[in-house]
Design brief:
The protein is mainly beta and 191 residues long. The chain is 4% helix and 40% strand. The protein has one helix spanning 40-46, and strands at residues 2-6, 15-19, 26-29, 34-37, 53-57, 61-62, 66-68, 73-77, 82-85, 92-94, 97-101, 110-113, 127-129, 132-135, 139-141, 152-154, 159-162, 166-168, 178-180, 183-186. The strands form four sheets. Strands 4-3-5-8-11-14-17-20 form an eight-stranded mixed sheet. Strands 6-9-12-15-18 form a five-stranded parallel sheet, with no helix packed on it. Strands 7-10-13-16-19 form a five-stranded parallel sheet. The longest helix is centred in the first third of the chain and has 7 residues, at 40-46.
Length: 191
């Protein structure tokens, strides 16, 4: 049997009908078209052909190393869902231009790590930024790194901006919440 999945960004009032056995982690929308992706990684890779798109998380996702490629500009909308890493790699790796937001009314969208693998990531436990990363809303919490940037690590040549949201409960030898070796600005949010 089929299940209807709402399409909130592109085509208000329309729904997709998909096989009930197919699980979709994300939806990608470029303003005119929308498609469902079985994995968050697939959605971030697909965003490369639709720069300026929104990737919306449809349910909690376990895993790490979700990479936004260079040359891609997109918004990752947590939509009240949780991205949970295992602690062996950063949860998100930004090589392009990524804005992280949570559009849910509850504000429950977050990036976090399972606590049983603390410190296996050298730097950037929650987000390792090689490009441009903006935290607009949502929470990065409980992420760890063995050396630098438990929550967010901005490597040389990157731009990291906190405009809203929160980074809390993260751990590292240096820069428990945020460590930036490049341009950093904070105009809102909380650390």
């Amino acid at each position: 049997s089929n299940v209807e999945v709402p399409v909130p960004y592109c085509k208000q009032g329309l729904v997709y009908t998909v096989d009930r056995n197919t699980l979709f982690e994300a939806e990608i929308c470029d303003g005119a078209h929308s498609s469902l992706c079985q994995t968050l990684d697939e959605a971030l890779q697909t965003a490369s052909s639709a720069s300026g798109s929104v990737v919306r998380v449809l349910h909690d996702v376990d895993g790490e190393g979700h990479r936004l490629p260079g040359g891609v500009r997109t918004v990752l909308d947590l939509n009240g869902k949780v991205l949970r890493g295992n602690g062996t790699a950063p949860v998100l790796v930004v090589e392009g231009d990524l804005t992280l937001r949570d559009s849910s009314a509850t504000g429950s969208g977050r990036v976090t790590m399972k606590s049983d693998f603390e410190g296996l990531v050298e730097y950037g436990g929650g987000v390792c930024n090689y490009g441009v990363f903006t935290l607009e809303s949502g929470v990065i919490e409980g992420c760890t790194a063995g050396d630098f940037g438990g929550g967010i690590m901005g490597v040389e040549g990157s731009v990291t901006s906190i405009r809203g949201g929160e980074v809390r409960g993260c751990k590292a030898e240096a820069g428990s919440a945020i460590c930036s070796r490049s341009r950093f600005e904070m105009t809102g949010g909380a650390v």
